[in-house]
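Journal club side-thread
Mid-discussion, someone asked how the predicted structure for our own chain would compare to the paper's figures. Pasting it here so we can look after the session.
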Amino acid sequence: MSATIHVVNPNSLEAVTRGIDEALQPLRLAEGPRIECHTLKEGPPGIQTQQDVEAAIPPLMRKVASLEPDAGAFVVACYSDPGLHALREITKKPVIGISEAGILTALTMGQRVGVIAILSASIPRHLRYYGAMGVMDRIAGELPVGLGVAELADRERAFLRMAEVGRMLRDAHGADVLVMGCAGMASLRQQLQDDVRLPVVEPCQAGVAMAMGRLMLGWSGA
């Protein structure tokens, strides 16, 4: 299959893109589409506020347009899904947002979804999105680790906070499946799942898996 799934990290941190690329390695199949990860160099250094979300959209649209010729699908690798609907207007190729994909995947794996956010300020933005998706009654809760995107590069510190929050979502909020609420957490999925003993959805993996299914089954919509 010659089509490429372009996974675009809408922030400017190369370390985040490397973590996403590492997490996607199990999905690189000999007979499957190519998966290429990109850093949006013009993007903010971490998408943590609504202003960051809005600032990322124009350069993200330009990036997608530049990658269009060989694209089979696009994955927006930020849990705020910046520009998702605008991008779906400018390309006929499938455009998958990792927040949407992560939550929809989690709904097939458990009844009560817990989300691990980076910062408290991110949570209202995410809750608005879940409300728009019509899934609020399945959200057990969302709690922050209190670390910004750049701070997630300290993997040991990030894991300890994520595990603490994951156990709290499990024990105090009744979550039976967890979603990692930031692409910067991507490389820690298996370690976290082993610790909390619940299914853990890494949304970049979920988004690429959805894109692969659409391409390989001819559901591209193009």
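Post-session note: The two ends are 16 Å apart (CA to CA).
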